[in-house]
Each structure stands twice: as structure tokens, then as C-alpha cells.
Amino acid sequence: MPDFRTTCQIHAAVLAALFAVYMLLPGLSFLAFDITATPEARFVARRASIMLLGLAVMVFLLRGVPPSVARQAVVLGMIVVWGGLAVFGVVALMRGVIGWTSIGTIVVEAVLAILFVPHLRSRPRDDV
């Protein structure tokens, strides 16, 4: 597993890329999920992209923070975000709401959640 700094940099890069896609090419995300991109849905995707940019900045700035309760809170929050998206995607896929083209997205979200799991501790380990 990557160290905390690298994990944060990976997440920040993915979140920044998602921001760019959802802001500049929102129809691409709808294509990935095999759903129709209405003008209203494109508006919501662009609006949501701002939250992705905020998360990217937060995680990028967190990369140098030593283990603490605050860092643990952000890490847990990111696990909930990525894990929640993966679970939500699996449920939507099973219900037939989204197409099988979304499997790659679901896998990536699950992997991103798992990457943060080793960094949940709030205090430095004594054996380091």
C-alpha cells in the first residue's frame, strides 16, 4: 500500500480529474453510466464538480499532516465517500438503473476507499 502522502496525491489527482470531466464534459460521465444526459442533469453534474474540486484541495493539503484525530476524520470521510459511491453503484447496477459500463467506475471507487483504510489510525504507531 502507498504511504499516506502518496495516497493523498493519488486521491487529489483523481478528484481533480473528475472535477475537470464533470465541469467541462459532463456528458462523458453519463456515457460511462449508460444513462441519458439531459440539460438539467448536465447542470447538476457541473454543480457537483465544485465539491469534487473542494475534496481534491482538502486531500492534497492533508498529505503532509501527521497522524491525528483530525486526519483520521478526513480519512474516514473519504472512505465513506468512495465506499458509499461504490455501494451505491452496485445497487444501481443490480436494479438496472445504470448500465454494465459502470463496472470500471465501481471498481475504481472501491479501490480508492481501500487505499485509505491503512491510514485510519489517529496516533503514530509506537513500533515505528
Task: Report the order of strands and helices.
Answer: HHHHH
Overall helicity = over 70%
The major pleated sheet works out as: none
Kindly give the count of domains: 1
Rounded to an integer in angstroms, the radius of gyration calculated over CA atoms is 16 Å
End-to-end C-alpha gap: 16 Å
> How many E-type strands?
0
Strand content: under 5%
Low-confidence stretches: none
* Oligomeric status: single chain
Tell me what the structure shows.
The protein is globular, with a radius of gyration of 16 Å. It contains 5 helices and no strands. The longest helix has 27 residues, at 69-95. It has one domain. With 128 residues, the chain is mostly helical. Helix 1 packs across helix 2 (26-32), helix 1 packs antiparallel against helix 3 and helix 4 packs antiparallel against helix 5. The two termini are 16 Å apart. The protein is 73% helix and 0% strand. The model has no long low-confidence stretch (mean pLDDT 92).
